[in-house]
Amino acid sequence: MRETDVLADDDYFQTLINLKNAVLGAIEQAHPDYEQKMAEFVQEALAKSGDLPAMTPDEFCEWLSSISDSSIITKDVIFNAAV
Questions:
Q1: What b/e string do you get for 22-58 counting C-beta neighbours within 10 Å, with b at 16 or more?
Q2: How far is CA 82 from CA 12, 36, 64, 73, in A?
Q3: What are phi and psi of 50, to 5 degrees?
Q4: Does the pLDDT of residue 35 top 80, yes or no?
Q5: Residue 18: C-alpha distances to residues 27, 37, 39 (Å)
Q6: 13, exposed or middle or buried, with CB in 10 Å at 0-12, 13-18, 19+?
Q7: What is the per-residue DSSP string for the chain?
Q8: pLDDT tens, residue by residue, 45-73
Q9: pLDDT tens-digit readout, 22-34
């Protein structure tokens, strides 16, 4: 595989994610209860956030790495399924 093929694969994958997010966002926002449910969710999340301990820098780095690792895995799974 050439480097240009890899770049094209990355562009395709990013475009696929952008399309999925746009479609899901439009569906969510078109729902009549969207704004009310989002407001309730945000209020509940903010109320609960005061009860949680803050992350340490090491915990944050682990969390960030796990997100990065899972996005790479998800990318591979989605791309391979599309091929």
A1: eeeeeeeeeeeeeeeeeeeeeeeeeeeeeeeeeeeee
A2: 10, 36, 27, 14
A3: -70, -20
A4: yes
A5: 14, 24, 25
A6: middle
A7: --HHHHHHHHHHHHHHHHHHHHHHHHHHHHSTTHHHHHHHHHHHHHHHHTTSPPPPHHHHHHHHHHHHHHHHHHHHHHHHHH-
A8: 888 877 777 888 899 888 888 887 665 55
A9: 998 888 888 888 8
Q: Which residues lie below 8 Å from residue 40, measured CB to CB, with a gap of 6+?
A: none
Question: In this structure, are residues 16 and 78 in contact, taking their beta carbons and an 8 Å threshold?
Answer: yes
Name the token pair of 3.
């480097």
Cα–Cα nearest to 13, from 83, 65, 81, 78: 78
| Residue 58 token pair | 């090491």
Which pTM value belongs to this model?
A: 0.35
